[in-house]
């Protein structure tokens, strides 16, 4: 059984700026957070300097539970230089941040079993320069992996 994985550590590089850095700093501490408008409460993912709803520049970073559901996904076989890798890039809904969606990867899953609405929980995958990338596993995936 081939399980979907994330790209190797050295392949993923991120650039941060003052708008996105709190997201990455929290991930480094294995916390999933989302920016919520300090004025109207609208969740702003991906992070934006100004609220698309009310143009406020105020933001508060809210800790999320790490639960998510698959909103849409793809199955990708191979990546330049990595012909044997299987990836499941996905857009996930975050139930604690209504209206916010995150683009990520589902890992530790047999790609054929992924479906819209699948329940996920966050995990953190090491990437370049000591950062951690939030990725998602099916709820209960650990048991499944050790059984295979
Ligand atoms: Zn707002």
Task: Tell me about this structure.
The protein is mainly β. The chain has one domain (9-138). It contains two helices and nine strands, in the order H-E-E-E-E-E-E-E-E-E-H. The protein has helices at 21-28, 141-147, and strands at 33-37, 59-63, 67-73, 76-79, 82-87, 89-93, 101-105, 119-126, 132-138. The strands form three sheets. A five-stranded antiparallel sheet has the order 7-6-3-8-9. The chain has a two-stranded antiparallel ribbon with strand order 1-2. A hairpin with a 5-residue loop joins strand 8 (119-126) and strand 9 (132-138). It binds zinc ion. Zinc ion (ZN) binds at residues 37, 39-40, 42, 51, 53-54, 56.
β-strand amount: 35-45%
Let me know the average pLDDT. 93
Count of domains = 1
Largest beta sheet: strand ordering: 7-6-3-8-9
Ends apart, CA distance between termini = 8 Å
Task: Tell me, briefly, the overall form.
Answer: globular
Structural class category = mainly beta
Q: In angstroms, what is the radius of gyration?
A: 16 Å
Quick structural summary:
With 148 residues, this protein is mostly beta strands. It has helices at residues 21-28, 141-147; strands at 33-37, 59-63, 67-73, 76-79, 82-87, 89-93, 101-105, 119-126, 132-138.
